[in-house]
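hey so u asked for the seq, here:
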Amino acid sequence: MTDFADYQRQALRTRNPALDAAGRLLDPACGLAEEAGETLALVRRHVLVGKPLDRERLADELGDVLWCLAATADAAGLSLESIAARNLAKLAARHPDGFSPT
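ran it, structure tokens below
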């Protein structure tokens, strides 16, 4: 199993080295929207059209989302580990006893 720091380090090896700082931020941030849209299309086809959920393609698209997230975070000087820790703290404060609709 790969941890977030290891994943981020390995994923960034595939970033386009010709990009300047603005491009290193903009390219993966745009990719987040693109890959999220592809993820949504797969889920929509399953839920609303009745097609079988293509878990292999979904895993690939979610992997692309993860790459874009890692690259966007790095371009902004953030680590996936710090983002995950911050999000867990926010969720714990929001839902200290786990999710409840009330």
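The helical segments are 4-11, 21-47, 55-75, 80-94. Residues 14 and 67 are 9 Å apart (CA to CA).
lmk if thats what u needed
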